[in-house]
Amino acid sequence: MTGFNTRLVHVPAPKDNQTGSVTVPIYKATTYEYPEIGAQVKYDYSRSGNPTRQALEDQVADLEGGKHAFAFASGMAAIHAALAIFKEGDHLIVGDQIYGGTFRLLNQFFNRWGLSITTVDTRDLAAIESAIQPNTKGIYFEPVTNPLLQVTSVEDVAKLAQQHHLTTIVDNTFLSPYLSQPLTQGADVVIQSATKYLSGHSDVSAGTVAVKDDQYAERIYFVQNALGGILSPEDSNELARGIKTLSLRMDRQMENLKAIVEFLESQSVVSKINYPGLPGYPGYESLRAQAKGAGGVLSFELNDQADPVAFVNQLNYFKLAVSLGSVESLVELPSQMSHAELSPDEQLAAGIKPGLIRLSVGIEDVEDLIADLKQALLSAQRGE
Ligand SMILES: *Cc1c(COP(=O)(O)O)cnc(C)c1O
After folding, report:
1. Which of 32, 71, 250, 369 is least enclosed by beta carbons within 10 angstroms?
2. In which domain, by residue range, is 113 found?
3. Residues identified as active-site
4. How far is the CA of 98 from the centre of ligand 1 (A)?
5. Centre of ligand 1 from the C-alpha of residue 383, in Å
6. Rounded to two decimals, what is the model's pTM?
7. Is the CB–ligand 1 distance for residue 76 below 6 Å?
8. Domain match, 300 and 238 both
9. How many whole angstroms separate alpha carbon 159 and alpha carbon 168?
10. Is 230 in the same domain as 212?
11. Quick check: 15 pLDDT over 80?
């Protein structure tokens, strides 16, 4: 098969014979003319199908190693569509470290429609197996979790799921299709918050769902068309553009991250680093077996000799912001930002200490990023 980087740029080939345009045009039309009553047309109404969105969906399906993909107005809309294939009375097994918004969707929305869940640490296959009930229909998890970067093997979970006739749904936002393609490792449905790595520039909200099986595709398409949470033609175009540089960006992000980890390892106030991409870190072997790299996000803990709030406030190039996967570097304090909804006890149970810092590494010059970290660590040191 053609290499991934070539496919990033050339799939799908625009078929615009009228102008020879090398990119897919932004089709704004909301409705399409029928040649005559009863004619079979490819597009009739923009919610149901749009050529710009379709080109993006074809691109994502190819990169994910799937057959069909669907683009939505946010990652949450994509996750909603993937979960809406289940019905009242179904039960799901869900990773205990999944994205907070997905928990909210399950616990405060889908529960009202009769979908129940059991949370487990999906690294533990025995725990998954013992959570299976007669009405269990699927397993939903993130192969690399936020903010602790714990690694679950897609292949192992999918194998177990197949034995029990369960649907495997993977939110692969942290790795992106550049680093791993869960559909080729046994997963049935793969979600991306395309707001993150796929778009890559913090200027598009989007989500994608990719599948390899026609029956899942039919069910997801039904939800996309029935609920209408589609990605606009303009955002489809911007996302398709962002995707073309996915591997360039992620290679630089991971190269920068490696140098940042080396710097952090030399700092006495840094007591722990979470990053499965380097030998010796937990999850390294499992990650290596399923992915080309561990992505551009890491987290670390400051010991009580440094003030984490002063540290994040003092950074300049690392913008104090949630989200991840963009060209610019970001920093956040999970205990007070992304995971602030959890009580202090729940945070500690989830392994989120007050001194835990999450970095999303960008594509800047790494010397500048390290200098920024250095000055912020210095000013955050607590006096004797
Ligand atoms: C951001 C994120 C989401 C939600 O995506 P939105 O585009 O913000 O709706 C879902 N899963 C993961 C892992 C995320 O990081």
Report:
1. 32
2. 4-243
3. 47, 99, 171, 196
4. 10
5. 39
6. 0.97
7. yes
8. no
9. 9
10. yes
11. no
